[in-house]
Amino acid sequence: MTPAIEVRGARRTFRVKGAMFQPDKHVVAVDDVSFAVPVGGVLGVVGESGCGKSTLARLILGLLPPEAGEILVDGQRVLQMDRKARARLIQPVFQDPFASLNPLRRVRDIVGLPLAAQGGMSSAEMAKRVDEMLVRVGLTVEMGERQPAQLSGGQRQRVAIARALVLRPRIVVCDEPTSALDVSVQAQILNLLAELRRDLNLTYLFISHNLAVVEHVATEVAVMYLGRIVERAPTDTLFHAPEHPYTKALLASVLTPEPGLGVPDVGLGDSLPDPSNIPPGCRFHPRCPVAIERCASVAPATTPRNAGIVECHLVPTIAA
Amino acid sequence: MTGETLLEVEGLRVEFGASVAAVRGASLSVARGQTHCLVGESGCGKSVSALAIMNLLARGGRRGADKLSFAGIDLRGMSDREMARLRGDRMAMIFQEPMTSLNPAYTVGSQMAEVLRRHRGTSRRDALDRAAELLGRVGITAPGMRLGQFPHQLSGGLRQRVMIAMALMCDPELLIADEPTTALDVTVQAQILRLLAGLQRDLGLAILLITHDLGVVARVAHRVSVMYAGEVVESAATADLFARPTHPYTRGLLECVPVPGKVKRDQPLGSIPGVVPKVSPGFTGCGFRDRCAHANEICAGDIPRHRTDGDHEYLCRLPRDWAHAA
Ligand SMILES: Nc1ncnc2c1ncn2[C@@H]1O[C@H](COP(=O)(O)OP(=O)(O)OP(=O)(O)O)[C@@H](O)[C@H]1O
Ligand SMILES: Nc1ncnc2c1ncn2[C@@H]1O[C@H](COP(=O)(O)OP(=O)(O)OP(=O)(O)O)[C@@H](O)[C@H]1O
Ligand code: SF4
Ligand SMILES: [Mg+2]
Ligand SMILES: [Mg+2]
Question: How far, rounded to the nearest angstrom, does the alpha carbon of residue A193 sit from its chain's CA centroid?
């Protein structure tokens, strides 16, 4: 079957003006990334702040062209699709709801916009769909009359989710959809996303920093570091037998609700990588607690492993 | 110095128009060198409380308080000018959504430098040096490049760290941080939390930290207050709150926390059924009663605030040992 999302060798950099008298720099956001998400699957994407997750999301949504590689959604090149058809197929829920919601419009107009853009629906029908959606994400119809600034952060996030789902798309790209929510409301939204997925066979790309959430919703998880996927595995495998040292560090950094334990130092050091100056060899080697000599000069190959991949010299090659 | 109360808020009230009572008599205090965490349901009034303390409420918001003092200064009578002088200097805030407080038209460097120039009259050059130093401390490499970038060119997490660095420009005594690490991955989050703990130790920084992440709360808070529908419904020292949560909302909240490695994938995540009621001025009774398994007719009337030893307080009709019977 055609995968819902297929990314082949995608690459995207950004040019950043150099400081005075300095040459311009190239920030590598996504570097030769390939993967596929089957219909009905949920790929969780985790990784360091700034490693390219949102850029990957924008490539998949067709909001940004890749410099190299191909991106197919439902078997079609996303950049070549008709905009209306694309909107019915794939929708985003973005990270920063304040930046992505027009502050001057009423909530119900924001949620109804994708419907209006499609055309051909009576305003009564549109109003009904909007009301249904508002209630479905846990807002009230009355809140539809407000502007985004009159809502709390979590309420705004629900507006963004309602807007994404109002067209009933088949693929939803969620970029930190619940990070602004308290755990109870977060659970309600995640349960809603899970229910919709089950009922409508939706496919999600799900970016989150909350590893427990990813563990709950994802069927497979990709771990990104400096623009590359360094490990990808089925969810259970990734959480119970992580292999890449960066994945291990991520899992060790999770703060469980146990008072008195303090904040762990997982030994990655305090300086984060510079995406305009990617280290040679394994890009994680300057911070890797178990690096060997070879890591500084030779980039590890993409090794098939446990129905996924790992990029690390220390992980032996075993056929999947 | 540590331990001395720096911020004292009593009976804080905020209303918007005639129909929204966003904060209804909330009290909390933050001591020097300590972190007080504020948690609670989305929309319960955490950000509005923080904004009210800083006198930054949106137009239409009205603030009242029985007490609102910072370092012994009564903030209630302060003019906007005087408040503006304190803000960003002795008391700084990190906003929930970084894009609301970063100006899209200016580079990161000029915005950060402006804070020091305004409050201290520092030269642009020195201010930029300080900005670069702080970006480094929040884990941003190539600070020189980042200073020259505009906010939209940064990832969510970079923006968030810029906000954190900007709040620290003038070495504030009080930092109010509204979800400062939610946009960050867990390794960077840990680094920022260690940085804040370091400032707390070295400079006696007092922190009011608003967060949904109960893992963060457990690890960094000295004291926790739980808000619901505009009220502080429970407040206690951290270990005590986690060991003996007493308000039914607090108990429900703690039960919802998903812990990695212990997640049951085939079951829905735990949540508290129901939604927050619409709370208008004049609302009486317990705000949680529509969702509470223990509600009865008493809950529609005046609810007692219990104060137990060790400063553990909660707002509920139930006796203090109801959930912890020996
Ligand atoms: N300008 C405004 N006008 C009217 N109502 C407002 C305004 N700002 C906030 N509110 C309301 O006040 C209540 C408290 O909002 P607040 O932003 O403090 O919530 P919060 O606890 O910070 O929630 P979250 O965790 O989602 O950020 C919400 O119900 C919100 O809708
Ligand atoms: N328009 C742009 N111009 C210049 N650089 C950009 C632009 N968009 C993104 N970048 C850079 O690309 C890199 C990846 O950014 P991206 O937003 O994809 O990260 P992310 O993984 O989503 O991070 P976060 O978890 O912090 O949201 C960052 O270094 C960022 O500064
Ligand atoms: S006062 Fe009543 S409704 Fe409110 S939490 Fe206590 S028992 Fe439940
Ligand atoms: Mg992002
Ligand atoms: Mg808030």
Answer: 15
Task: Specify if A279 maps to a domain.
Answer: yes
Domain encompassing residue A207: 5-310
Angstrom distance (rounded) from CA B160 to CA A210: 16
Chain segment B17-72, per-residue pLDDT in tens: 888 899 999 999 999 999 999 999 888 999 999 999 999 998 889 999 999 999 99
* Protein residue with its CA nearest to atom 1 in ligand 1: A150
Q: Is B230 on the interface with A (CB under 8 A)?
A: no
Q: Taking chain A, what is the end-to-end CA distance rounded to the nearest angstrom? A: 21
Q: Is B140 in CB contact (< 8 Å) with chain A?
A: yes
Tell me if A155 and B149 make a contact (CB, 8 A cut-off).
Answer: no
Q: Where are the beta strands (DSSP E) in chain A?
A: 5-16, 25-37, 42-47, 68-73, 76-77, 90-93, 171-175, 203-207, 220-225, 228-234, 303-305, 308-310
Query: Is residue A306 domain-resident?
Result: yes
Instruction: Kindly identify which residue of chain A lies nearest to residue B191, measuring between CA atoms.
Output: A270
Q: Tell me, yes or no, whether A82 lies in a domain.
A: yes
| Spatial distance between the Cα atoms of A1 and A276, rounded to a whole number of angstroms | 38
Contact A49 B185 (CB under 8 A): yes
For domain B5-90+172-325, the CATH class is: alpha beta
What ipTM does this complex have? Answer: 0.84
CATH number at residue A110: 3.40.50.300
Where are chain B's structural domains? Answer: 5-90+172-325, 104-171
Please give the full DSSP string across B271-294, using - where no structure is assigned: --SS-PPP--TT--S-TTTTT-TT
CA dihedral B182, A309, A277, A175 (to 10 degrees): -30
A239 contact B CB<8A:
yes
In total, how many domains does chain A have? 1
Q: Which residues of A touch B43 (CB under 8 A)?
A: 151-152, 154-155
pTM: 0.89
Tell me if B46 CB under 6 Å of ligand 1.
Answer: yes
